[in-house]
Amino acid sequence: MSRRVHGGLNDSTNSTKESRIPMRIYVDTDALAAASAGMIFTLPDAQAHHVGRVMRRRVGDAVRLFDGRGHEFEGVLSVVDRKCVSVTLGEPVAVTPESPLSVHLGQAISKGDRMDIAIQKSVELGVTEITPLYTERGDVRLKGEREERKWQHWLAVAASACEQCGRATLPIIHAPMALSSWLEQRNEPMKLMLQPGRSALEDHEHNPGRAALLIGPEGGFTADEIDQAAAQHFEILSLGPRILRTETAPIAAMTLLQYRYGDLR
């Protein structure tokens, strides 16, 4: 998203202001569910800083507020200063429905920005829930405050992805857990585990409605983990002849699932 070029107003800057896509802002609140046009909404500190100081938005700029619960409103910045950023709400926005396929992604935790990429792109592709998983060959172990901070960071990554892609419903990002615990909780009609060298995903006659998708770490799953998944009736399959990175696999799998059973057309 481009920033406004400051200076004297002319036809070019006016045209830019009119044509710019409104900035979408996620606000974790129940207030939008009962909101109406004309109400004044004051942004929380973090969002206010981002809007006013980072994105350099100004009074009169169009924005959209959404609560991650399916409510979204048009709005206009009415106050932008160091202490406060407020939005005058306009009309509610008719939000795009969620995919008819609900996917719960179990993603092995990986180093660096790989986990961020996996979460970001999966949210863009319509994932419903994500659980970061501790696996035997995973090289990341989080405990206590460090785990809490990382979890909050992943929540922010998901919210930012929703802002960018236009989703009004925020996917659930669960706290990290052991792979074995996650497997025991699965009751989706379709359960898929990606593993190189296995057969490709076959078409199901009917839309399963819900699916669990399991992606491993950089070192892959151990034989014991594969056996655990098979015992929970996971289909163990691959996405072709090439080995995909742990952050690439969910992108490819989510695209395929949404194309076959969801809303990617």
Automatic annotation (TrEMBL):
<feature type="domain" description="Ribosomal RNA small subunit methyltransferase E PUA-like">
    <location>
        <begin position="43"/>
        <end position="87"/>
    </location>
</feature>
<keyword id="KW-0949">S-adenosyl-L-methionine</keyword>
<dbReference type="GO" id="GO:0070475">
    <property type="term" value="P:rRNA base methylation"/>
</dbReference>
<dbReference type="Pfam" id="PF20260">
    <property type="entry name" value="PUA_4"/>
</dbReference>
<dbReference type="GO" id="GO:0005737">
    <property type="term" value="C:cytoplasm"/>
</dbReference>
<dbReference type="InterPro" id="IPR029028">
    <property type="entry name" value="Alpha/beta_knot_MTases"/>
</dbReference>
<keyword id="KW-0698">rRNA processing</keyword>
<dbReference type="InterPro" id="IPR015947">
    <property type="entry name" value="PUA-like_sf"/>
</dbReference>
<protein>
    <recommendedName>
        <fullName>Ribosomal RNA small subunit methyltransferase E</fullName>
        <ecNumber>2.1.1.193</ecNumber>
    </recommendedName>
</protein>
<keyword id="KW-0489">Methyltransferase</keyword>
<keyword id="KW-0963">Cytoplasm</keyword>
<keyword id="KW-0808">Transferase</keyword>
<dbReference type="InterPro" id="IPR046886">
    <property type="entry name" value="RsmE_MTase_dom"/>
</dbReference>
<dbReference type="GO" id="GO:0070042">
    <property type="term" value="F:rRNA (uridine-N3-)-methyltransferase activity"/>
</dbReference>
<dbReference type="InterPro" id="IPR046887">
    <property type="entry name" value="RsmE_PUA-like"/>
</dbReference>
<comment type="function">
    <text>Specifically methylates the N3 position of the uracil ring of uridine 1498 (m3U1498) in 16S rRNA. Acts on the fully assembled 30S ribosomal subunit.</text>
</comment>
<dbReference type="InterPro" id="IPR006700">
    <property type="entry name" value="RsmE"/>
</dbReference>
<dbReference type="InterPro" id="IPR029026">
    <property type="entry name" value="tRNA_m1G_MTases_N"/>
</dbReference>
<comment type="similarity">
    <text>Belongs to the RNA methyltransferase RsmE family.</text>
</comment>
<dbReference type="Pfam" id="PF04452">
    <property type="entry name" value="Methyltrans_RNA"/>
</dbReference>
<feature type="domain" description="Ribosomal RNA small subunit methyltransferase E methyltransferase">
    <location>
        <begin position="98"/>
        <end position="258"/>
    </location>
</feature>
